[in-house]
């Protein structure tokens, strides 16, 4: 088996001037604040970029289709950020692997979002204790 | 009433802060920004029956709804309230505990 090494021509949108511009923007923007509280960890850049994360944390049983964690970001955003979620595999669970059809974020606002595991109506209360946790990431602007 | 503050850094550079007063099952919330007139609203939970309130339905004149959860358990109100903290807030502010306020 040979290893494929990606080339810039694979992604026509990526150009040397574009990359240079990105690095120049980063060079001029330092982290001005970072910290953590019970809602996670955040970083703020001088340019206005903000990144937050939470977890791994337990979800709660909301209904047969949703194991949810209602995430209040550790730091609010100036507008609705992009929110991503991923599972944290802590323990083997046949039911979890066969039932969790999607790891999602939804209902994102500038201060909070829901992240969770979706199923086709197969969750029951206590499934949130099967051992799989969730992590969330939010990327947007703080000013 | 039992209260737990939910810590968050506010967006922007205005550094707004929430302040709270408690009287029985009533909470008075004040939103303050330095150099601007404060905004106050009152949240009365005296008629909340046992169980959880739908806080997303709460209407307020404040820029942000500070009530993050509210429920009555065995006759007592338990509320989670938004708490804007500064960049160098102490651990007790960033990781608060439930407290009895009235």
Q: What ranges of chain B have pLDDT less than 50 throughout 5 or more consecutive residues?
A: none
Mean pLDDT of chain B: 96
Q: What structural category characterises the helix and strand content of chain A?
A: mainly beta
When the domains of chain B are counted, the total is 1
Placed side by side, the strands forming the largest sheet of chain B appear as 5-6-7-1-8
* Share of residues in helices of chain A: 10-25%
| Radius of gyration of CA atoms of chain A, rounded to a whole number | 19 Å
Q: Give the SSE order of chain B as H and E letters.
A: EEEEEEEHE
How far do the termini of chain B sit from each other? 5 Å
Strand ordering within the main sheet of chain A: 1-2-3-9-6
Coarse structural class of chain B: mainly beta
Describe the structure.
The complex is a heterodimer of chains A (143) and B (102). Chain A has 2 helices and 9 strands; from the N terminus they run αββββββαβββ. Chain A has helices spanning 16-27, 94-99; strands spanning 31-37, 40-45, 49-57, 60-63, 66-72, 82-89, 102-106, 112-118, 132-141. Chain B has one domain (2-96). The model of chain B has no long low-confidence stretch (mean pLDDT 96).
List keywords for this structure.
heterodimer; A: 143 residues; mainly beta; 4-stranded antiparallel sheet; 13% helix; B: 102 residues; 5-stranded mixed sheet; 3-stranded antiparallel sheet; 1 helix
Short description:
The complex is a heterodimer of chains A (143) and B (102). Chain A has 143 residues and is mainly β.
């Amino acid at each position: 088996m040979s290893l494929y090494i990606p080339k810039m021509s694979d992604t026509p949108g990526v150009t040397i001037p574009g990359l240079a511009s990105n690095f120049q923007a980063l060079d001029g923007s330092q982290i001005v604040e970072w910290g953590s509280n019970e809602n996670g960890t955040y970083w703020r850049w001088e340019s206005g970029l903000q990144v937050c994360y939470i977890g791994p944390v337990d979800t709660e049983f909301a209904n047969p289709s949703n194991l949810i964690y209602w995430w209040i970001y550790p730091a609010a955003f100036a507008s609705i950020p992009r929110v991503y979620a991923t599972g944290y595999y802590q323990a083997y669970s046949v039911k979890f692997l066969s039932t969790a059809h999607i790891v999602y974020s939804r209902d994102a606002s500038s201060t909070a979002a829901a992240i969770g595991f979706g199923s086709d109506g197969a969750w029951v209360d206590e499934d949130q204790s099967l051992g799989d946790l969730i992590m969330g990431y939010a990327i947007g602007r703080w000013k | 009433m039992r209260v737990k503050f939910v810590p968050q850094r506010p967006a922007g550079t205005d550094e707004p802060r929430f302040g709270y007063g408690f009287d029985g099952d009533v909470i008075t919330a004040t939103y303050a920004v330095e150099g601007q007139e404060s905004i106050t609203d009152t949240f009365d939970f005296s008629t909340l029956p046992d169980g959880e309130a739908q806080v997303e339905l709460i209407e307020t004149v404040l820029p942000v709804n500070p009530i993050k959860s509210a429920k009555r358990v065995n006759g007592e109100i338990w509320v989670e309230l938004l708490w804007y903290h500064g960049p160098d807030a102490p651990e007790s502010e960033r990781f608060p505990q439930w407290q009895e306020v009235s």
